[in-house]
């Protein structure tokens, strides 16, 4: 076992502990960015001047009326920017735009003594606009060939030969929606300037170093004049990886110009209408199978809805392509990607970062064609799993390690859920209930862990030991409720060999740990845990030398366990506090900067090949649903999950992440339906689902009635911190089992072997239309498939099956 993954005697990691801020969370004493405003004197409030048109060129902005509003202090415009007028890393997101690119785009900001004064001032600003044509939907963007950014192509094997060898070939089209992050805490920042003109910014950001970088170039000052701190976030889910930077820059610019603290916080409607979402996708595909139902070839094009600017769309698309295989061996593949440019908010990172979109495509394909191949969907999936010991690689060329875990978690879920018996019970229930049907589906996941951009796979930490033996740690990761800080305290305590109560964690700050990566890609514990372990090991080695002298032993024979240093074969011992005190008087350095970089990674973005991931996380979920044939309404009766987190750093935290990720994934796939005004009226481009009243989120009523989650046992990950694996993103994709169960339940209303298409999100309305399709015979009666490569049929983006005859007639 590697040094990084080996656990010492009596480790604090692996123990189930509550979240380090749990008490503050439940008592309401936990502070978030905007809470700090009440503790700050003379704060100004920033409010956006929005233009409620989808697209247009600004011909004039008149700020004088705003300045006449009582309490308005200043209006910020492009003329006030001393540095670069851009809030993005691609330099395509002007902070103060000349062109309105989406409905509600902010073109100026008003600073007021009160929030109400700033709001009234923003309403008074006059903006003249030369309105331009707008592209709102992904379909319209594809038709207009409105694209931007990279267009990657992933090629593996020989797809022509693969299709020639296929006994069955299918084609189709699948379009699915994005998702709103709906974190409890909206975007917020508080900027202060000191007597030397240096900026201190409190920001609700997943990437403090990049917030620092953007603020630095907007203000035209070096990075050392800008300090960014993230105390904690009330949720992030990727929505605060890139998008907080410009908002923090507005607050910083205001503070720099006025000399007063400036606060910014969106209300919920502003957050929903002005911040990016998960990318919706369109997929066109052609797939071939041999006579036994094994995939021979896949040819697909994935189009992501990037919105008006690139943001993180290129890496999101890249990860989608890298995950289209999911758990399945595809010997011959050609997958192309492109990014649509639309006049909507700039879509951004969201838990899974494109991985869910790519994996959903292959799961939709298999769920849809299984009945046409005469196979149970579970059987079709099992036949196509990656196999251990076969040297199989992903379509981008990475060897699939631990492939045996795909079958292991799958079989454990089958056993835990009692699949065979329950399928018989469901068949009996369905035969006796013509208007209500049940179904049970299993899906698995294989999710790559690391940033696709190799340079981001590094982490830093600062560990301080004080004379009294207490320890303070700071690392580059941010806490958004996911429990990262809890795990990092456990890692520090384990490495130093001390009780957890000796360790405290300081807020994430750019002047403590520089040049950090975003807390994203599920890599927070891997990167920052590795860095903390490295720093603590430096300190422990120094202290072991001191202890060895005191105990009369060799340093290699000394162990520090539960806060006591002992030498092997001796009864002598030295308490931690005494050891630290002695080290101080011997002038031993009691602070250390730690660093970690993920080894073994390589990625060639041009050829779209390499080894971008350190390892894969695996999991499987079985979901049973019940569907009402009159309304399409459904309930989740039971969920069973087995998930691979390696050797868990903090089991209770990890189980919570699995549960939360699953529910959020189920929300994306079944409930959360983003709608824009696509009419040619005055509100074209307006987000219609801009509140919790119109955008449906999972709640207690959508929770599984029985929810069983367990972590894969004996699953130590070689070469990762204390043998653990990442947990943040992978569980979201376990919710594919909900959608596939709904598909099968809808199909149960039709004849045996019927195949139905199911829109995403699979709302009750969508399920109802799938039921109607099943009753009419579904795809099985109207959608043919090719044998030996002959012509095939597909289905349209809106879920309606189209036959060749309909397509030719333009129906």
From TrEMBL:
It comes from the Bacteria. InterPro entries: Ald_Oxase/Xan_DH_a/b (IPR000674), Ald_Oxase/Xan_DH_a/b_sf (IPR036856), Ald_Oxase/xanthine_DH-like (IPR016208), AldOxase/xan_DH_MoCoBD1 (IPR008274), AldOxase/xan_DH_MoCoBD2 (IPR046867), AldOxase/xan_DH_Mopterin-bd_sf (IPR037165), Xanthine_DH_Mopterin-bd_su (IPR014309). Transmembrane segments: none annotated. Pfam families: Ald_Xan_dh_C, MoCoBD_1, MoCoBD_2. Residues 791-811 are annotated as: Disordered. Residues 27-133 form the Aldehyde oxidase/xanthine dehydrogenase a/b hammerhead domain. PANTHER family: XANTHINE DEHYDROGENASE. NCBIfam families: xanthine_xdhB. This is Xanthine dehydrogenase molybdopterin binding subunit.
């Amino acid at each position: 076992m590697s040094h990084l993954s080996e656990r010492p005697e009596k480790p604090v990691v692996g123990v189930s502990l509550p979240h380090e801020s749990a008490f503050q969370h439940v008592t309401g004493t936990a502070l978030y960015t905007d809470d700090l405003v009440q503790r700050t004197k003379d704060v100004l409030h920033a409010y956006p001047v929005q233009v409620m048109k989808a697209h247009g060129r600004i011909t004039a902005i008149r700020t004088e009326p705003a300045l006449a509003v009582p309490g308005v202090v200043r209006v910020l415009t492009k003329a006030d920017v001393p540095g670069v007028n851009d809030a993005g890393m691609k330099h395509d997101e002007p902070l103060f735009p000349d062109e309105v690119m989406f409905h509600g785009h902010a073109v100026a900001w008003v600073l007021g003594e009160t929030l109400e004064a700033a709001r009234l001032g923003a309403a008074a600003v006059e903006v003249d606009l030369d309105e331009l044509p707008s592209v709102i939907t992904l379909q319209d963007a594809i038709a207009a060939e409105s694209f931007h950014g990279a267009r990657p192509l992933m090629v593996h094997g020989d797809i022509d030969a693969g299709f020639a060898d296929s006994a069955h070939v299918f084609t189709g089209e699948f379009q699915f929606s994005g998702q709103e992050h709906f974190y409890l805490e909206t975007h917020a920042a508080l900027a202060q300037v000191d007597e030397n003109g240096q900026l201190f910014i409190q920001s609700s950001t997943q990437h403090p170093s990049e917030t620092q970088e953007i603020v630095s170039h907007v203000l035209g000052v070096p990075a050392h004049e800008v300090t960014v701190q993230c105390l904690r976030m009330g949720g992030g889910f990727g929505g605060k990886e890139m998008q907080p930077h410009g908002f923090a820059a507005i607050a910083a610019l205001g503070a720099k110009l006025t000399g007063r603290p400036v606060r910014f916080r969106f209300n919920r409607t502003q957050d929903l209408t002005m911040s990016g979402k998960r990318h919706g996708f369109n997929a066109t595909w052609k797939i071939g199978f041999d006579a036994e139902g094994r995939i021979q070839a896949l040819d697909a094009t994935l189009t992501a809805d990037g919105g008006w600017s690139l943001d993180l769309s290129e890496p999101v698309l890249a990860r989608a392509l890298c995950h289209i295989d999911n758990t399945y061996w595809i010997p011959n593949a050609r997958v192309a990607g492109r990014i649509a440019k639309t006049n909507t908010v700039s879509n951004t990172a969201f838990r899974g970062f494109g991985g869910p979109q790519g994996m959903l495509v292959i799961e939709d394909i298999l769920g849809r064609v299984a009945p046409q191949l005469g196979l149970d969907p579970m059987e079709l999936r099992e036949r196509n799993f990656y196999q251990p010991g076969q040297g199989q690689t992903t379509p981008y060329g990475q060897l699939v390690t631990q492939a045996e875990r795909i079958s292991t978690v799958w079989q454990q879920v089958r056993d835990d859920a009692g699949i065979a018996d329950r399928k018989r019970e469901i068949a009996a229930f369905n035969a006796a209930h013509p208007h209500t049907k049940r179904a049970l589906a299993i899906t698995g996941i294989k999710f790559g862990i690391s940033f696709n951009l190799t340079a981001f796979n590094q982490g830093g930490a600062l560990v301080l030991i004080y004379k009294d033996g207490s320890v303070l740690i700071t690392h580059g990761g941010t806490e958004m409720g996911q429990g990262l800080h809890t795990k990092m305290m456990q890692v520090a305590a384990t490495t130093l060999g001390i009780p957890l109560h000796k360790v405290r964690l300081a807020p994430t700050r750019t002047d403590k740990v520089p040049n950090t990566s975003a807390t994203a890609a599920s890599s927070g514990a891997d990167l920052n845990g590795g860095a903390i372990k490295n720093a603590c090991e430096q300190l422990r080695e120094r202290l072991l030398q001191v202890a060895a002298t005191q105990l009369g032993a060799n340093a290699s024979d000394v162990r520090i366990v539960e806060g006591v240093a002992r030498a092997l074969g001796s009864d002598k011992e030295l308490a931690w506090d005494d050891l630290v005190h002695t080290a101080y008087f011997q002038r031993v350095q009691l602070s250390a900067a730690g660093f970690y970089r993920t080894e073994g990674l390589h990625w060639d973005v041009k050829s779209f090949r390499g080894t971008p991931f350190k390892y894969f996380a695996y999991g499987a979920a079985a979901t049973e649903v019940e569907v009402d044939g009159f309304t399409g309404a459904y309930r989740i009766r039971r969920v069973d999950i087995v998930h691979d987190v390696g050797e868990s750093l903090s089991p209770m935290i990890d189980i919570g992440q699995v549960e939360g990720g699953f529910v959020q994934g189920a929300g994306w796939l079944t409930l959360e339906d983003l709608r824009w005004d696509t009419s040619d009226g005055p509100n074209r481009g307006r987000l219609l689902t801009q509140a919790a009243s119109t955008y449906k989120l999972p709640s207690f009523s959508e929770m599984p009635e029985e929810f069983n989650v367990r972590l894969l046992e004996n699953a130590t990950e070689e070469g990762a911190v204390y043998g653990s694996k990442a947990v943040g993103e992978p569980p979201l994709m376990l919710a594919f089992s909900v959608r596939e169960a709904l598909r099968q339940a809808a199909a149960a209303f039709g004849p045996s072997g019927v195949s139905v298409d199911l829109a995403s999100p699979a709302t009750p309305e969508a399920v109802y239309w799938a039921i109607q399709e099943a009753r009419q015979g579904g795809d099985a009666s109207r959608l043919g498939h090719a044998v030996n490569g002959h012509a095939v049929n597909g289905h349209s983006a809106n879920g309606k099956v189209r036959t060749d005859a309909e397509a030719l007639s333009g129906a």
